[in-house]
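Give me the 3D structure for Glycosyltransferase.
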Amino acid sequence: MRTSKAALFGFLMAAVITYYNFTFFARLSEEPNRGAGDEEALATEPEVHLKADNSNSKESSAMGGETEKAEQQPEADNSNSKESSAIGVETEIAEQQPEADNSNSKESSAMFETTIGSSPLVSTVHCVGETFTDKAWAHRSCEFTNICFDRKRKDFVLFKPEASSGHQHQGGTYVSSSSSYDLSLSLGGINPRWNWGINGGIEKLKWFPRILNGPLIEDYHRMEDVTLIPWHCMNGLNVGHLLWDDFLPLYTLLGMFSLEQTKLFIVRHILDEPLWATCEFNPSRNKGKCEANFEKWFKIMGVGAPFFTNKTLHEQVPVTSNYLCFDRAVAGLGLLTDHGDKLHGWAQKDYEISNNIGRGRIMWEFRSFMLENLKIDSLSLPKSKPRIITVSCHSSNDSRRSLSFDKQVKILRERLGGDDSDVVINQVKFAEYSVEEQAKIAIESSVMITAVGGGAVTATFLPKGATLVLFFPFDNNHQKGTAARLDWDYFNNAAYMRTHWFPIETMNEDESLTALADLVAHELQIISSHH
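Predicted structure for Glycosyltransferase (531 residues):
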């Protein structure tokens, strides 16, 4: 009986061991299949975002009827990649969360987002400023919808609807359309010293997106809720040029199409052959100065330094599809500068035509736009005293316009100062202050005194009703014996301030000093009566 029980117990134990061994090895044999299934699932996940087969996607080139086959871009692992935001600050892309359907997933940063788009995309064009002349392109500004950056070819493209005809001959009559795809414009403000003509430098600014016939039918990335501005900087070396030949035209361009309140995505266009006095013309000398000015001043446009360029955009926004598309874009600064097709006041002929008549409201709104971006609120002169006279000394690198104003300050303090006076006179070297500090000093000033030139840009922030006194070289023009009232066309049409001009050559003579003191006293009386 004992032997039978022992045998039965041994049989049961062997059965249990056999069962567990079978189960264990069976699980081991199933593990590779599960892993292979996971790998296959991972391999097919990108198809949610990008179609695996684009073999039938074609683009027709408007240049020669060529057809291009869109090459599939490999899906990369961007979980730790970074995007440069529109203000030039790198921000991490949010890590992708696993979802059953990621077709609407977004890559986000502090300033912009991109989404995956797959619907057929067609572009539209709307241009203004037509003059029906050979130079019409320099007058023209355009708004685009559904414009895309081709990351392979590093240029912007439009997708022309097949039914669109644009400019065409009909019955022998030339038909012109503001919605034509057969146009051109100037990417930046024009410096007349670059010269017109076929071989002139100005022609290098002539631009228009490349046209592809038919809609975009392959997948693309879309930049969300921004206005794209392709832009060529005229002269970033000089703050005056930067403000009045770049920022003011950019603001004017946005206002044309009611886009001044939108978020901006500015792409600086770098020419293959740089123009004279531009940032790229003499890189060893100019590049650092431009970058410093961009870093300091671009914030007044509501964005940071324009680190995006047509040469580097394909690397700076890490998307997997070839096309990076924008809902809207504007371009065409040509003659929107404060001086138009003339110099700033160096030549006598510059004074024959004003480029800013009736532009006073835009100038005031531009000032408010800049202060809003600096988060500074000021509409008019403070009603409370004291009245502040700000004297901008040594505002220019030009020795002839680098003025201390010591004698002017002395006579103003004698006439208007004193212990019981409500007038305060401050000498300031604005270059030593941040943009925000400069703006705050200006908006608290009843009167500002400065030399003409780039150093006078801070006067743009003066409050409504303030007085500006500009000292200019009377015998320092390119045509000897004539005055150089630089930027006269801007200040004489900025209706929110009262502008006066004094020659530098006689500024320290008694008669001129007395005239200045009398003028400032009179201006303070006007200001007090209105405020």
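The first strand starts at residue 58 and ends at 61. Let me know if you want a second pass.
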